[in-house]
Design brief:
- Helix 1 packs across helix 3.
- This protein has two domains: 49 residues; 51 residues, no CATH class.
- It is rod-shaped and about 70 Å long.
- It has five helices and three strands.
- It is mainly alpha-helical.
Length: 117
């Protein structure tokens, strides 16, 4: 009776093949595997890895500008605000802001920017 391998076992075998420098035929024979099955799994993992790279989130940085008015206020009080630009929207953040609310707002803007809403 043939042994059924898990996807993780196949991934390990394919990684071993690629690191061995052996031909697919030699590797398959050495491990008692069907060469076509090894080729299929190698293709499957390559395709999945390419798709994962394409769908990986893109990191974007927000532009942060300190306003002149706030800079002068800082010199008087020692405290200043912050302006965040995200997806064409300006968000003013003042001292004492709620970090959870800001995080939720940025998540909504990110979702809108990615077309999820």
């Amino acid at each position: 009776m043939k042994r059924t391998r898990t996807e993780n076992e196949w991934r390990t075998l394919v990684q071993d093949l690629e690191g061995s420098g052996a031909s697919t035929r030699d590797f398959a024979e050495r491990h008692g595997l069907n060469r076509r099955t090894v080729v299929w799994w190698r293709s499957y993992f390559r395709r999945r890895d390419r798709e994962a790279k394409r769908s990986a989130p893109v990191v974007q940085f927000a532009t942060v500008q300190r306003s002149v008015a706030r800079a002068s206020a800082r010199s008087e009080t020692g405290v200043t605000g912050l302006a965040i630009f995200s997806g064409g929207v300006r968000i003013g953040v003042q001292p004492g802001f709620d970090p959870e609310t800001l995080t939720a707002l940025l998540d909504v803007l990110d979702a809108r920017h990615e077309g999820r809403r």
